[in-house]
Amino acid sequence: GAGVSQSPSNKVTEKGKDVELRCDPISGHTALYWYRQRLGQGLEFLIYFQGNSAPDKSGLPSDRFSAERTGESVSTLTIQRTQQEDSAVYLCASKRGANNEQFFGPGTRLTVL
Amino acid sequence: GENVEQHPSTLSVQEGDSAVIKCTYSDSASNYFPWYKQELGKGPQLIIDIRSNVGEKKDQRIAVTLNKTAKHFSLHITETQPEDSAVYFCAASYASGGNTGKLIFGQGTTLQVKP
Fold first, then answer.
1. A101, B32 contact by CB (below 8 A)
2. What residues of chain A lie within 8 A of the CB of B27, using their CB?
3. Contacts of A31 in chain B (CB under 8 A)
4. Average pLDDT of B84-91?
5. Banded pLDDT at B112 (limits 50, 70, 90)
């Protein structure tokens, strides 16, 4: 079946612009996560959705970052007034309920000039 | 909060040799420990995982061991092949009904298998 998809695959933007990154989880997966991966680093947790609610936003680095999820499906991560330090690969993962395995998408590579 | 340390950062082995990657974690409440393989330009893929009620798990050439007392776990790859070359990440999580299950990752190990 279809896996987790993300769009765009690459995004180049200028400092100060806003960007939106999209995640389409596996159908039926109620849990959705966003992670950030800086070059040569491990993944950092950003936010967790259960259904359309976000009970854990503890990883969002600043108030420039926000995310939403609708229809217990698609999620959008928005970064306002982008800074060069926001350059990274943003990964989305989903999982079905209590099952622990998280399935990752291919990521969106964000470059802020 | 949870912290995961991973070593080594790079590992080079000859084809057919074994490779071992080690991780330590800080939160004794963590009970789920997956290992992911990430190839260039792709998202991480789960290769094996272990839960805290088990000390060892094997899947063909891959095995993971867990020492809860010492709070460390290791990935063992035997009979390595060039296609095993990738970046490997360990992670830890506290997974229960009311918990987020968010993964805390190590920094990654770049494994190179030389033919």
1. no
2. none
3. 101
4. 97
5. very high
Q: What is the 3-state secondary structure (H, E, C) of chain B?
A: CCCEEEECCEEEEECCCCEEEEEEECCCCCCEEEEEEECCCCCCEEEEEEECCCCEEEECCEEEEEECCCCEEEEEECCCCHHHCEEEEEEEECCCCCCCCCCEECCCEEEEEEC
Please identify among residues 57-96 of chain B the ones whose CB lies closer than 8 Å to any CB of chain A: 89, 91, 93, 95
Mean of pLDDT values over B90-105: 83
pLDDT at B52 over 90: no
Select from A33, A42, A104 the Cβ nearest to the Cβ of B102.
Answer: A33
| Cβ-defined contact of B105 to A44 (cutoff 8 Å) | yes
